[in-house]
Write a structure and sequence with these properties.
The protein is α/β, with parallel strands linked by helices. Helices cover 26% and strands 24% of the residues. The strands form four sheets. Strands 1, 5, 6, 7, 8 and 9 form a six-stranded mixed β-sheet that branches. Strands 4-11-10-15-13-14 form a six-stranded mixed β-sheet, with no helix packed on it. It has a two-stranded antiparallel ribbon with strand order 2-3. A hairpin with a 2-residue loop joins β10 and β11. The protein is extended, with a radius of gyration of 27 Å.
C-alpha cells in the first residue's frame, strides 16, 4: 500500500527533543524506514515491518521489590515489560538514533515495537559528565547516559495485599517534575497529571520526598538503584492517583498571609504608640517587635 498521507503526516510531526525524556530507536530499522521515504513512487508502509529494538535494549530484571518485610504479591507486581533503558555498550549513530516522543508515538501507530527504550533529556549542568548531544535537541539540553533502575512500591497502609511494584529506568539529573510526568506517561492507566489528590506520601530512606518542583533526583540523593515507597490512603490497583506534595505551597501561602497580618498590626501599633507620651512607652521598640513578628515569636513581644 502506497500512502502519501502517511508521509505528509509524518513530516508534520515535531522532531524537537525537549527536556524530560525521548526514545531510542534501532539505527538499522530507522535507516531502512528513511530509505522507504525516498521512494518516488510512494511509501509501501506494509513492507517495513515492526520496529525491532532488541539489539539496543537492556533486559535486566534482577532487582526485586520489598518493603517493610513484605514481598510484593506476584499478581500486583508489574515491571513495565515494554519500558527499558539502553544497553551500556551500544553507540549513538551506529546502533541507535534518538527521536522525539511525538515521532515515536506516530511510528508505533503503524509499526508497533518490541521494546520502548527510554533516554533522559536533561539540562547541561556543571557537575554533569556522562552525556552526549545529537541533532534536534532543544537549546541547552543533552542526553544523559547516567541511568539506573528505580522501583516504586505503591502501598495502601490498611491493606498490604494491594501493594504494587513499578520498575522504571531513572536519571539522577532529570528535574523531578519532568520525571513525575514520565512516570505517569508510562503507566498503563495513563493518569492525567492535572487530576490528583493529596492523600499520598512518598518516602525513601525514611525521608519524605516532595513530589514536584525543579529539584533533580541527584539533589534529593536519588542516584542509585533503590526503591521508593509511595504510601496512599485511598488506593486500588486499578486506580492509581497522582501523589503531589503541597505542604510547601500551603506553608508559603500561610506565611504570606501572616506577613500581611503583621504589616497591618505594625501600622496600627505604630499609630497607637505615636499617640502616647514617651514616658508611657514600656513596650519594645517597633524594630524589636517587627523582628519578633518575622520570627513568628509572639510570646517574646
Amino acid at each position: 500500500m502506497f500512502d502519501q498521507d502517511f508521509v505528509y503526516q509524518y513530516r508534520t510531526k515535531n522532531t524537537l527533543i525537549k527536556e524530560g525524556y525521548a526514545f531510542a530507536i534501532s539505527t538499522q530499522w530507522f535507516r531502512q524506514f528513511n530509505s522507504f521515504l525516498q521512494n518516488p513512487n510512494g511509501v509501501n508502509i506494509s513492507k517495513i515491518g515492526e520496529i525491532n529494538n532488541t539489539s539496543i535494549c537492556d533486559l535486566n530484571h534482577s532487582f526485586q521489590a520489598n518493603v517493610d518485610g513484605y514481598s510484593i504479591p506476584q499478581q500486583h507486581s508489574m515491571t513495565f515489560s515494554r519500558i527499558y533503558q539502553l544497553k551500556s555498550n551500544v553507540k549513538y549513530g551506529q546502533d541507535y538514533e534518538i527521536i522525539s516522543i511525538e515521532i515515536w508515538n506516530y511510528l508505533k501507530l503503524y509499526y508497533n515495537a518490541d521494546y520502548d527504550v527510554i533516554v533522559f533529556v536533561t539540562q547541561i549542568l556543571p557537575n554533569l559528565t556522562n552525556y552526549f548531544t545529537c541533532e534536534n535537541l532543544d537549546q541547552g539540553v543533552c542526553i544523559c547516559t547516567e541511568v539506573f533502575y528505580l522501583v516504586l512500591v505503591v502501598v495502601q497502609p490498611h491493606d498490604k495485599g494491594l501493594m504494587m511494584a513499578i520498575k522504571v529506568p531513572a536519571c539522577p539529573w532529570v528535574k523531578f517534575d519532568k520525571f513525575r510526568t514520565y512516570i505517569y506517561d508510562m503507566l498503563e492507566q495513563k493518569i492525567n497529571p492535572k487530576t490528583f489528590n493529596n492523600k499520598a506520601h512518598m518516602y525513601y530512606n525514611g525521608k519524605k520526598v516532595p513530589f514536584k518542583g525543579n529539584k533533580t533526583l541527584q539533589e534529593m540523593e536519588i542516584n542509585k538503584e533503590m526503591q521508593i515507597m509511595i504510601s496512599c490512603q485511598s488506593l486500588t490497583i486499578g486506580e492509581v492517583e497522582e501523589e503531589i506534595e503541597t505542604d510547601e505551597d500551603e506553608d508559603d501561602q500561610e506565611t504570606e498571609k501572616n506577613l500581611h497580618t503583621k504589616q497591618e498590626f505594625l501600622q496600627i501599633l505604630e499609630q497607637a504608640l505615636n499617640q502616647q507620651p514617651t514616658e508611657l512607652l514600656t513596650l519594645k521598640s517597633i524594630q524589636e517587635i517587627q523582628e519578633c513578628l518575622e520570627q513568628n515569636d509572639f510570646f517574646q513581644i
